[in-house]
Amino acid sequence: MRADPSPLPPDPRRDWSRLDRAARDAAYDNNAAVPDAAAQAAARNAASAIYRAAHPGALDIPYAPEPRTALDLYPATNPAAPCLVFIHGGYWQRNSPDLFACFAEGPAAAGWSVAMPGHTLAPEASLTQIVEEIGLCLDWLAEHGPAHGVAGPLVIAGWSAGAHLAAMQLHHPAVVAGLAISGVYELGPIRDTGLNDALSLTDAEVAAFSPLRLPVMGKPLAIAYGSAERPALVHDARDFHALRSAHHAPGPLVPVAGAEHFSILNELRRPGGVLVRAAIDLIEGRHA
Predict the structure, then answer these.
(1) Which of 27, 133, 273, 282 could form a disulfide with 267 if both were Cys (CB 3.0 to 4.6 A apart)?
(2) Edge-to-edge strand order for the sheet containing 113-117?
(3) Bridge-based pairing state of the strands 154-159 and 113-117
(4) Where is the BD-FAE-like domain positioned along the sequence (predicted)?
């Protein structure tokens, strides 16, 4: 486990009942917390458009019948190479995989394949449907991936809401390990924020889809966060890793010093970045 060089910020949810709606919204508002969030997103989108245009061979492949249930594949030269299945973020209600294509650069430089699935967004889809759709994508990759040059082990990964979805699919039989980046692993407080206007989370969904409330999966899972993230996300990452450690489940806690919610992904884009290395270690650890 890597030591976090920064002091642990207080978790605002400890006084949740005393906070008004604005303070609760602020606890999860990553855009407001990062002054140049819009500029970072614009740069990401531009770089992703360039990367996608340079790798047009296997884009927008349907894995289920809904309009957004398609994935982009970036196969490695070696079909047996590991494949990082990266799920985009956006609090389950924004974004699409084409906007994150540039983050295939780091894994691709390591010789990996990358798959980037989309999913139906809330409020059109419930969280139940979204979780199920990612499972369908993994089913599709297990069955059809080899025909598209993706036959190696699948490492499920995601950022923000995508990290939550990755954690929810660690159990999938085609998945050998996971990398969860800057995720939300307890959904209860989300119901008290504006994010729930689109999600309309039920009691059953909060119970069934909060990884911190679920039985621990024994597959390796690296849990990453930026030391400059919103405190609620920092605590979720550390609490999730502590829960898994208490059950002797493998996988490191990966604090990225100085990174906030958006800049942390530079460590996935950069060849040899911290998050690329974390993914590689998950696979190499299986054979150690």
Answers:
(1) 273
(2) 61-62, 70-74, 113-117, 83-87, 154-159, 175-181, 221-226, 253-256
(3) unpaired
(4) 72-169
Amino acid letter, 97: P
**Residue 154 near residue 141, CB atoms below 8 Å:** yes
Local structure of 225: helix, strand or coil: strand
Residue that the structure tokens 């206007």 belong to = 197
Domains and CATH numbers, the chain: 29-286 (3.40.50.1820)
Share of the chain above pLDDT 90, in %: 95
Ranges under pLDDT 70 in the chain? 1-6, 286-288
Tokens of 22: 């604005």
pLDDT in tens, 47-60: 999 999 999 999 99
What is the Cα–Cα distance from 204 to 128, expressed in whole angstroms?
10
226-251 residue pLDDT tens: 999 999 999 999 999 999 999 999 99
DSSP state, residue 58: T
Measured over the CA atoms of residue 117, residue 269, residue 155 and residue 220, the dihedral's sign is negative
CA proximity to 166, closest of 126, 116, 215: 116
